[in-house]
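Query protein
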Amino acid sequence: SDQFSRGEDAPLAAGMDGALRAFLENMGRIWEDIGLTPEERGERVSQLVHFFQEVFRNVEDKEAMVRKRMQGDVDVAEARHAELLGELQISSDLEPRGQQPLRARLALVREAIGRLEAHQAKVKAEQKHAELRKALDRVTSLRAMIKEHS
């Protein structure tokens, strides 16, 4: 909790603290109006704690799945990047993974893939152009030979 109050998550911690404080004040008034005994209030609080723990676990599980899917996306992108490097027979232009957040790493790898795919398309176009040039040279040579013999 203390790390949340100091870092970039401080607004979340402050919001949660405020929401919890307001909730407990409202529940206190409602329970007072109902006339709950301290034991009944304790039982209700215990039920609420269990409920909120379950909610927090569900949220944590969902966020963990987001992280897992994003890690999978990074792994797939890095594999594609490595594949392109192998096809083009060039060395990597990416920094090592390091401690980058997954979103930043994915963007970096996708950008590198874009550059490599553009380079690959250029290489393929140049190869096709060279093939067409060869074919044209053969046709020109055959025409000259036919012309000579006619």
